[in-house]
Design goal:
The protein is about 35% helix and about 25% strand. The protein has about 425 residues and is of the alpha/beta class. The protein has a five-stranded mixed beta barrel. Strand 13 (about 280-290), helix 12 (about 295-310) and strand 14 form a beta-alpha-beta unit. The radius of gyration is 22 Å and the shape is globular. The structure holds S-adenosyl-L-homocysteine and iron/sulfur cluster.
């Protein structure tokens, strides 16, 4: 999501005549787009700012925006501590960056402006995309779920859905421009609703008679429906891939997280998707060390991961975020959390390795995203990455690839002729 927001910021700057540079030393404008989902992301910001202070050229405008600076106290601290930062804005007024730059250049006065909520303005037009194959499209912003560990609803506001017609126009425009994959973005895409049109309705409208791959992220298990699984099964464009964050495998912990599903309900949903789409690739987010999580409760997470057998897992150590309910609960020590994540990583490593080994000898349609040193890289429909000798293949091609070997979870193949 933040990658796409950076594309939007770059778009606003391009529209004002700026071009990009790989070297911060040469930049007239430097924008740091921050994240505050976990503490580590926040602590890195000051280190980066210190480095930028020493290398940025005289007169360059330094801007900080994003989730971290949406938090008023964090933004104020940065404003006071880092006098060399010229403009600080939050998430809701990020689309106004161009205007803030004009004002700063005209007056030379530092700007600190944070809004409490969205005013309906969003930039969905001035976008400078980094990737020529995959295009991101926001279908909604914000989140209403308030999982007890998560800061997102506080810094992104309540759920707002974009008009279905605008989304369809954006997807068509991307395909016209040669994009081969579109990824729909939202914190909880399953609760998309625009004037009665639901997420499955939106997906149906995107069954365009064109060759492309459609993905979406993120689905919340409480809102994931059989109707959506059927949509994936019937679709000509949807990838056979589902990212369905489980977070934990124990019911008491799931309840304390305010996730609104049980382990059994989650497994049931996975089983029904698998029965409708047998070759579906699955991935998930899992958090360890949530406050009060016991050893036994953590082992329920391990056993769930072993039972589901995800292709890929995004694993996080719980990070305390002030202002969230979980920050008030009794915290676990760092050593315990670290030991748990090590065990989880080891477990998943073996599973990914086994899944990769099972793919050897089979054929997959791969969308080529990169060619380097005579090798092509891309993903199969189930989201597993495969590399193979590129030959005459071009970036953006869909090719049939036979997997010939697997090294850990790295798949190697060759083009089927
Ligand atoms: N809306 C999405 C993802 C939001 S953030 C969803 O609900 O799935 C992405 C992931 O970051 C979450 O799935 C969660 O696993 C992780 N995360 C969120 N808050 C966190 C925290 N305080 N500490 C550690 N990981 C966190
Ligand atoms: Fe955070 Fe939960 Fe919303 Fe995801 S669904 S963004 S984890 S509050």
């Amino acid at each position: 999501m933040n990658v796409h927001e950076s594309e939007k910021i770059a778009g606003l700057l391009s529209a004002r005549g700026f071009s990009s540079t790989d070297n911060a030393k040469d930049a007239d404008i430097i924008v740091m787009n921050t994240c505050c989902v976990r503490e580590t992301a926040e602590t890195k910001v000051y280190g980066h700012l210190g480095r930028l202070k020493s290398i940025k050229k005289r007169g360059a405008v330094l801007i900080v925006c994003g989730c971290m600076t949406q938090r008023r106290d964090a933004a104020r601290e940065m404003y006071d501590r880092c006098k060399f930062v010229d403009i600080i804005v939050g998430t809701f007024n990020q689309y106004m960056l161009g205007e803030y730059i004009d004002t700063f250049l005209a007056t030379g006065k530092r700007i600190l402006e944070i809004w409490d909520k969205a005013d309906g303005g969003e930039n969905n037009k001035a976008i400078r995309r980094d990737d020529g194959v995959n295009g991101w499209v926001n279908i909604m912003y914000g989140c209403n779920n308030f999982c007890t560990y998560c800061i997102v609803p506080y810094v992104r506001g309540r759920e707002r859905c974009r008009a279905i017609g605008d989304i369809i126009d954006d997807v068509n425009a991307l395909l016209d421009a040669g994009y081969k994959q579109v990824t729909l973005l939202g914190q909880n895409v399953n609760s998309y609703n625009f004037e009665g049109k639901t997420f499955p309705d939106l997906l149906k409208s995107l069954e365009l008679n064109r060759k492309f791959r459609l993905k979406f992220t993120t689905s919340h298990p409480k809102d994931f429906s059989i109707e959506l699984a059927e949509r994936i099964a019937d679709s000509k464009v949807l990838a056979h891939y589902l990212h369905l964050p489980v977070q934990a495998g124990n019911d008491r912990v799931l309840n304390a997280m305010n996730r609104h599903y049980t382990r059994a309900q989650y497994i049931d949903k996975i089983n029904s998707v698998r029965s409708l789409v047998p070759d579906i690739g699955l991935s998930s987010d899992v958090m360890v060390g949530f406050p009060t999580e016991t050893e036994e409760e953590f082992s329920d997470t391990l056993s769930l991961v072993e039972e589901i057998r995800y292709n890929n897992l995004f694993m996080f150590i719980y990070s305390k975020r002030s202002g969230t309910p979980a920050a008030e609960m009794e915290q676990l020590d760092y050593k315990t959390k670290q030991a748990r994540i090590d065990r989880l990583i080891k477990t998943q490593f073996e599973i990914s390795k086994e899944i990769a080994a099972e793919m050897v000898g089979k054929n997959y349609e791969v969308l080529v995203s990169e060619i380097k040193n005579g090798r092509a890289f891309g993903k199969a429909e189930n989201d597993m990455a495969i590399s193979f000798p590129s030959g005459t293949v071009q970036v953006g091609d869909f090719v049939q690839v036979k997997v010939t070997s697997a090294r850990n979870s790295n798949l190697i193949g060759e083009v089927e002729v």
